[in-house]
């Protein structure tokens, strides 16, 4: 299994990039969003990769973060979602957008991806909603490719921002992960907990774990 490639960009096409790794060219298919942030030809880059093997086909898919790679793997486990549809979803929403949409059950957002209809979008949310907390917990520095793995170049880690000026999430990823873990230990359903944490993390500026957990418990408390 080829899990990561470090090399130099030979050229970029509409749906893939050719990476020169010590004289060997690897054709790596990427989402539109990932392709847009890759450096120009001749510059170094590293990509996490996933190898798809079939009887008549072998394809490599590239990602700038482990979160993006994990969502690709999970999306392709859903009936009706192939590699092309998975990359379309990631290209339209980015890995963070996919995490939020699935955690909050917002299947309409998934329809922004080319070729994804309402029934397929609903199926994605239903089948993957309980898995969203695990993927969201990966959103921290522990999953970054180390810059030393790319000769003389900085590694591109996140392809998610569609607009350069987009602000970072208010609550830190570690706070989100701690809150999800705490709510799960208290017996709350993973999907419900993920939806609440995703909503609160965007509302609470600089929230730490304790603050996020308290707010989530208050929000999820039975209404009297």
UniProtKB/TrEMBL annotation:
Q: Does the keyword Transmembrane helix apply?
A: no
Which residues lie within the region annotated Domain III? 171-224
UniProtKB keywords: ATP-binding, Cytoplasm, DNA damage, DNA recombination, DNA repair, DNA-binding, Helicase, Hydrolase, Nucleotide-binding
What coarse category fits the chief subcellular location reported for this protein?
Answer: cytoplasm
The record's CDD domains line, in alphabetical order, gives: UBA_RuvA_C
Q: Where in the cell is it found?
A: Cytoplasm
Coiled coil (UniProt feature): none
- Please provide, in alphabetical order, the Gene Ontology terms of the cellular component aspect for this entry: cytoplasm; Holliday junction helicase complex; Holliday junction resolvase complex
Q: Which residues form the Helix-hairpin-helix DNA-binding motif class domain?
A: 73-92, 108-127
Q: Where is this region: Domain I?
A: 1-64
Q: Which InterPro entries match?
A: DNA_helicase_Holl-junc_RuvA_I (IPR013849), Hlx-hairpin-Hlx_DNA-bd_motif (IPR003583), NA-bd_OB-fold (IPR012340), RuvA (IPR000085), RuvA_2-like (IPR010994), RuvA_C (IPR011114), RuvA_C_sf (IPR036267)
In Gene Ontology terms, what is a biological process of this protein?
DNA repair
For the keyword Chloroplast, the answer is: no
Domain of life of the native organism: Bacteria
**Gene Ontology terms, MF aspect:** ATP binding; four-way junction DNA binding; four-way junction helicase activity; hydrolase activity
Q: Which family does it belong to?
A: Belongs to the RuvA family.
The task this protein performs is described as: The RuvA-RuvB-RuvC complex processes Holliday junction (HJ) DNA during genetic recombination and DNA repair, while the RuvA-RuvB complex plays an important role in the rescue of blocked DNA replication forks via replication fork reversal (RFR). RuvA specifically binds to HJ cruciform DNA, conferring on it an open structure. The RuvB hexamer acts as an ATP-dependent pump, pulling dsDNA into and through the RuvAB complex. HJ branch migration allows RuvC to scan DNA until it finds its consensus sequence, where it cleaves and resolves the cruciform DNA.
- What NCBIfam families does the record point to? ruvA
Fill in the subunit field for this protein. Homotetramer. Forms an RuvA(8)-RuvB(12)-Holliday junction (HJ) complex. HJ DNA is sandwiched between 2 RuvA tetramers; dsDNA enters through RuvA and exits via RuvB. An RuvB hexamer assembles on each DNA strand where it exits the tetramer. Each RuvB hexamer is contacted by two RuvA subunits (via domain III) on 2 adjacent RuvB subunits; this complex drives branch migration. In the full resolvosome a probable DNA-RuvA(4)-RuvB(12)-RuvC(2) complex forms which resolves the HJ.
Notes concerning its domains: Has three domains with a flexible linker between the domains II and III and assumes an 'L' shape. Domain III is highly mobile and contacts RuvB.
Official protein name in the record: Holliday junction branch migration complex subunit RuvA
Q: Which organism is the protein's source? A: Planktomarina temperata RCA23
Q: Which gene encodes it?
A: ruvA
């Amino acid at each position: 299994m080829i899990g990561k490639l470090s090399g130099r960009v030979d050229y970029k096409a509409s749906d893939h990039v050719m990476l020169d790794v010590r004289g060997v060219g690897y054709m790596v298919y990427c989402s539109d969003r990932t392709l847009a942030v890759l450096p120009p030809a001749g510059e170094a880059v590293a990509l996490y990769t996933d190898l798809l093997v079939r009887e008549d086909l072998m394809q490599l898919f590239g990602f700038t973060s482990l979160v993006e790679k994990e969502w690709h793997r999970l999306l392709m486990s859903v009936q009706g979602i192939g590699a092309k549809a998975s990359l379309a979803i990631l290209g339209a929403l980015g890995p963070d957008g996919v995490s939020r949409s699935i955690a909050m059950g917002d299947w309409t957002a998934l329809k922004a991806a080319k070729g994804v209809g309402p029934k397929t979008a609903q199926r994605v949310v239903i089948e993957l909603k309980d898995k969203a907390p695990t993927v969201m917990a990966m959103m921290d520095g522990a999953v970054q490719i180390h810059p030393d793995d790319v000769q003389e170049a900085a590694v591109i880690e996140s392809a998610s921002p569609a607009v350069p000026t987009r602000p970072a999430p208010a609550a830190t990823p570690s706070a989100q992960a701690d809150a999800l873990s705490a709510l799960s230990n208290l017996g709350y359903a993973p999907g419900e907990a993920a939806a609440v944490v995703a909503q609160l993390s965007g509302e609470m500026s600089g929230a730490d774990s304790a603050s996020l957990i308290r707010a989530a418990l208050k929000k999820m408390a039975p209404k009297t």
